[in-house]
Amino acid sequence: MYQAFDVIGGSSGSAERVARLRAAFDALSIDGFIVPRADEHQGEYIPDSAARLGWITGFTGSAGVALILRDRAAIFVDGRYTVQVRAQVDTTLYDIESLVDTPLSEYLKERGARLRIGFDPWLHTIGEAKRLREAMVAAGGALVPLSSNPIDAIWADRPEPPKGRVWRHNERFAGRPAADKIAALQADLDKKDVSATVVTDPSSIAWVLNIRGSDVSHTPLPLSFAILPREGRPTLFIDPDKIRDAEVRTYLSGLCQLEAPAAFAGAVEEVAKNARILLDPALAAEQLREIVEGAGGAVVEGPDPARLPRAIKNETEIAGSRLAHQRDGAAMVDFLYWLDLQAPGSITEIGAVEALENARRASGEAAQMPLRDISFDTISGAGPNGAIVHYRVNRSTDRTLQAGELFLIDSGAQYEDGTTDITRTVAIGEPTAEMREKFTLVLKGMIALSLARFPKGTRGMDIDVLARIALWKAGCDYAHGTGHGIGSFLAVHEGPQSISKRGVTELEAGMIISNEPGYYREGAFGIRIENLILVKDREPVAGGDLPMHGFETLTLAPIDRRLIEVRLLTEEERGWLDAYHAWVRETLSPLLRPEVAEWLAGVTTPLERA
């Protein structure tokens, strides 16, 4: 299995670890220390060796930060983790704060008077450090960069950094040779009049060089850094033990100079002398700014030049995604058919995860495109566990799917031709009227986005309301974004695009993004419906005068009609769902066993005949 179910996190040992950290404050001349969930690459996906926040707090979510002062401590999380953090963290030790309502910078501005707060400049972006520094200045305190991380000195059993094997991502999946990508990025640097850029995001490095790796769970990333000069060969800083195949070493040596990570800081210092260096303030570590400016260079702030080109998929990547979704859809239907045959109370959340992973393996083998991994730990939540937005089932929380409950399963796969992410909410037995109503309101939001037409230049924040308005009218909402970008056999969460209240990036043709509104009643049930959608150019509207975009749905899987209150749907919404189900049925039936195809035909019958 790609997913393990061991119990991780929890507050055992937190008090002793916090005490040991505080004991180091006097020698460091600080009054507190900031512990983010981050590594030197500032990504969502970190190795176990960088899980400092989890080690000292017990919290295992993908976003959060702790502030440990001499006499108190706080942990800051967003709305996805409000339930999880209370289950994992010792609340007698840590106050729980909202990353959105009371971000750390605001907290420090109010409580940081005359304090010296230490931080590891490798673990905070330039933008984060600036906000924190300004907050401390406003409070009459100081933000103090430390030369080494004090947690590392007390973490006796800290895991070793990963050394996952790197392999070449075939051009028949990438659609474009690495040399062309390098040349295009160098032309961009020339336009910006900078000498070089430092690339810290492993997703960008993997995309530019057409390589993949295995340093973090479920995401094929080779943790590494790169310096891309305006002219000449790039330098890739990567542990040589990761390049185990002679063919891969020869390939990479033909593209760039290879150096060990230990040479990275010195190389940045050398290239920065009297030079203009492009750094992404949202991705590059504060330490890099200090190195560049310390060498007499000038930091030019701007986005990672590979980030937007990586997000806009080429035709090969789009074609691969369509095929991956057909394969994944067949697996999902096979799983849903199996689930429908199980009596309530007979299977558990873990059993469902295992069945779905097996279905994906079988579907990949049948198509001769093997499942390489799942794209994240499957969220398999029955009843009240479904209300925990990023719930991760383990041996101690594993719950039986009972009659009268909802079951939420959010999962995805990594195939060489595409990354998938899908959520379905299923009725176990007879749903209540409230479940049907809330499910239908969520469905209305998902359909509204699917049908949207919008002018070119529209940002994700401009259309986020479409997915929420039906819920808002009922006095409800959900505390997460509506859509995130998707990589191409890369990260399942990929920027810069998003559909959310903070989605400032314009949506461009070729971007793949999720469409996943939800509703969560703590202690009772959770609802989420998720399809992946592709931004496309659309034909001009008759009588209109603006070029328009729209979406093509990629995900193929039935939506549980037992949970739909048809009277709440408009004619247009019913028409969309019927057409979607017809497409699912026609596309997937040839890939299914006869009995599964027959089941699919039954559950995709038009609503008018339901």
TrEMBL record:
GO CC, any one term: cytoplasm
SUPFAM superfamilies: Creatinase/aminopeptidase (SSF55920), Creatinase/prolidase N-terminal domain (SSF53092)
Keyword Repressor in record: no
Residue span(s) of domain Peptidase M24 C-terminal: 548-607
Annotated Gene3D superfamilies: Creatinase/methionine aminopeptidase superfamily, Creatinase/prolidase N-terminal domain
Residue stretches making up the Creatinase N-terminal domain: 17-148
GO molecular function: metal ion binding; metalloaminopeptidase activity
Entry-linked Pfam families: Creatinase_N, Creatinase_N_2, Peptidase_M24, Peptidase_M24_C
Keyword vocabulary terms for this entry: Aminopeptidase, Hydrolase, Manganese, Metal-binding, Protease
InterPro entries linked: Creatin/AminoP/Spt16_N, Creatinase/aminopeptidase-like, Creatinase_N, Pept_M24, Pept_M24B, Peptidase_M24_C, X-Pro_aminopeptidase_P
All residue ranges annotated as the Peptidase M24 domain in the record: 322-536
Family: Belongs to the peptidase M24B family.
Protein name: Xaa-Pro aminopeptidase
Organism: Consotaella salsifontis
Lineage of origin: Bacteria, Pseudomonadati, Pseudomonadota, Alphaproteobacteria, Hyphomicrobiales
